[in-house]
Amino acid sequence: MSNIIALAQPRKLSPTQVNGKVCPPIRRASTNPRKYLTPGEVEKLRRAASGGRYGQRDSTLVLLAFRHGLRVAELVALEWSAVDLTDGNLHVKRKKHGSESVHPLHGVELRALRELRRAHPESRWLFVSERDDKPMTTSNVRKILTRLGIAAKIGFPVHPHQLRHATGFALANKGVDTRSLAAYLGHRSLESTRLYTDTAPNRFKDFFRD
């Protein structure tokens, strides 16, 4: 029984007791209503970030994660060498054996990135800890998004991967085809991308139209 408890502890689940004996913890279902954020909710996060102590950094972090479908590990690994502020391009290196690509950067992103660059002209990394000018960790980002979700009154816990899913659903809703969306998100298999295109509500927009 002690082995069961030891295995349960890293998962941070609470054990229960029956007749004085400790039993394995009960895994509870997630309370999140969905795995993605809407563009409106992403904007709420950015507004909540802008009022914080590190508003420019955190707002830009949310923006890039959403616009480019970045996983949290890809986000914190971004270096300025991947950013071309003159031609407006971002070289995206994917984790999980994903395909690399070059994404365009548009007005609001370029303005945010230029301001971020002015704040840390010597930094190698886009998103750095204010304390020691080292790259942020994935844990830093998760904590920031949790806090921003509460401040923005999203109504359910916010985590980084919801921003990547938000990208997929937002582009699918705009009618982006499966292959283009797969390339943008770095998917090597179209099966991973059909999650977004098969459930896009714009497929049904003319049903029962008056």
Rg over CA atoms, rounded to whole Å, is 20 Å
Helix content: 40-55%
Give me the count of strands: 5
N- to C-terminal distance: 64 Å
Structural features, described:
With 210 residues, the protein is mainly α. The chain has a single domain, classed as Orthogonal Bundle (hpI Integrase, Chain A). 45% of the residues lie in helices and 8% in strands. The chain contains nine helices and five strands. The chain has helices spanning 2-8, 39-50, 55-68, 72-76, 107-119, 138-151, 161-173, 178-185, 190-197; strands at residues 16-18, 21-23, 83-84, 89-92, 101-104. A three-stranded antiparallel beta sheet has the order 3-4-5, with no helix packed on it. Helix 2 packs antiparallel against helix 3 (55-68), helix 3 (55-68) packs across helix 5 and helix 3 packs across helix 7 (161-173). The protein is globular, with a radius of gyration of 20 Å.
Question: Main attributes?
Answer:
mainly alpha, hpI Integrase, Chain A, three-stranded antiparallel beta sheet, two-stranded antiparallel ribbon, 5 strands, globular, disordered N terminus
